[in-house]
Amino acid sequence: MDKTTIVDIERKIPLGITNPYIVKCSDGKKYVAKFPGNPDGAKVLVNEYVCAELAKLLKLPIPNYKLIHINDIQKYKNMLADINLVNGTVFCSEFIEKATVVPGYYVLSKTSNKYDAIKILIFDVIIGNNDRNQGNLLINLKNNSLIMIDHSHVFIYESLWNENNLKPLIGNKIDLSKMNKFNFNNLSLCLNLENYKTEILEYINHIKNINGSKINEILNTIPKDWNISSKEKEILKEFLLDRLHRINEICTLLKIEGGD
After folding, report:
1. Is the pTM of the predicted complex or chain greater than 0.90?
2. Are 128 and 236 in contact (CB under 8 A)?
3. Cα 184 to Cα 75: distance, rounded to the nearest angstrom
4. What percent of the chain has pLDDT over 90?
């Protein structure tokens, strides 16, 4: 667990079902914090953490993140009026001071890491993210780079996934029809970019190198106070490995050249 502490609650972010807050921390930085007592519960924190760790493995553009323990949440009761005041582990994603949502394909195609758009498209299919809405794909204005945030509602069933509803998805048809159309369409248009194939082939090889032991390393470091069961960990591992191992099928569905 990181030794950084939350020292102040700055303000609530007006959007987001998990009622996130911008907090100031002892390392001098600001973070977007999602608390265990949020309306959707700790499962969304599990989702955030697992996806952040996978994204890090795949060198995808996400903000720096930390798990920060809070044991004195009651002192912020006047500032955290719309969450349950539960002590425990908070998922904190570094706040990007100067950022804007992606308005469309043209701007997306002019970012400094434009090929990451295709990688994000693939990643969203792997993690079952139908919620890549306009607010969680940003451009960092400091360096004109594409950055993805907010993976609280993934694994198809979002905050409601469990060992019973994930299991039937394993080996079953991958359905793209429910993915958020705005960003899905914009990201898909990046397949028109020239010279993407070499970089995407390398990315696909990274995906193929993620094995069960690497997934275990992630799942075994999920904070205990988020109360994910061993059965849930096992089925989530099976779900992720199924998607990762079907990368060639995913590329075919997305009409991406690079898979076998």
Report:
1. yes
2. no
3. 42
4. 95
